[in-house]
UniProtKB/TrEMBL annotation:
NCBIfam families on file: rsmG_gidB
A GO term from the CC aspect: cytosol
Keywords: Cytoplasm, Methyltransferase, rRNA processing, S-adenosyl-L-methionine, Transferase
Family (UniProt): Belongs to the methyltransferase superfamily. RNA methyltransferase RsmG family.
Main function: Specifically methylates the N7 position of a guanine in 16S rRNA.
Binding site for S-adenosyl-L-methionine: 75, 80, 125-126, 142
Protein name per the record: Ribosomal RNA small subunit methyltransferase G
Protein location: Cytoplasm
Length: 230
């Protein structure tokens, strides 16, 4: 795992200390151990964990300086991309949000072991926002839903002037085109699609800037978001 990280970081223009690499590997090992009793990831080979979870998560640091910023990871699952970002940038203030209580309990247990101080919340994204609207500099999310749906869950959390960064795959441009109207309705504007290598594949990040407040009517209940996307 450590060798794969050390080999892959230069392609992303990133450098981590030996201690940071060790903490990432420790988190990866804890993930694989827990995965034997809880479904946390379909990726179980250590090199693949390093490549498809860690390097993929860290890639956005090529474009976005997260130092000192309040970051929310919406639909974090087993802690991606938020946990690797917090290990790489200890100055960021991280909130990990997921609807599954058992995942959040596990994160609360293991994050102190790898030196990550994060607020871990078990709640639905469209409900937690009621008390945390426009309180974050950056919202990140990876592989949760198509961008037009995901934007309605994430953009309400972002301050005007902040960013929503969606980690996507090959269909990023198509999803961005589909979501453009929704993003505009929600107070955002697509500012770029960033490409980066992960193994033999090219992954992408859709960058959305928050240019005005999200109307209070959003987000709707998720059933309505799915039934009638913006």
């Amino acid at each position: 795992m450590k060798e794969t990280l050390a080999a892959g970081l230069p392609a992303l223009g990133l450098t981590l200390t030996d201690g940071q690499l060790d903490r990432l590997c420790q988190f990866g090992q804890l993930l694989l151990e827990q995965n034997q009793v809880m479904n946390l990831t379909a990726i179980t080979e250590p090199r693949a964990v390093a490549e498809l979870h860690f390097l993929d998560s860290l890639a956005l640091l090529q474009w976005e300086d997260l130092r000192g910023k309040a970051v929310i990871d919406v639909g974090c699952g087993a802690g991606f991309p938020g946990t690797p970002l917090a290990i790489a940038v200890p100055e960021l203030k991280l909130t990990l949000l997921d609807s599954l209580q058992k995942r959040i309990r596990w994160l609360e247990t293991v994050l102190p072991q790898v030196g990550v101080d994060a607020t871990c919340v078990a709640a639905r994204a469209e409900e937690y926002v009621a008390q945390h609207r426009e309180q974050y500099d950056v919202a990140v999310s990876r592989a949760v839903a198509r961008l037009n749906l995901l934007s309605e869950l994430c953009l309400p959390y972002v301050k005007v002037g902040g960013k929503f960064l969606a980690l996507k795959g090959a269909m990023a441009q198509e999803e961005a085109d589909e979501a453009r109207k929704a993003i505009e309705t929600l107070g955002g504007r697509i500012t770029g699609i960033w490409e980066y290598p992960v193994g033999d594949a090219v992954h992408r990040i859709v960058a959305v800037e928050k240019v005005r407040p999200t109307p209070k009517a959003y987000p709707r209940k998720f059933a309505k978001i799915k039934q009638n996307p913006l």
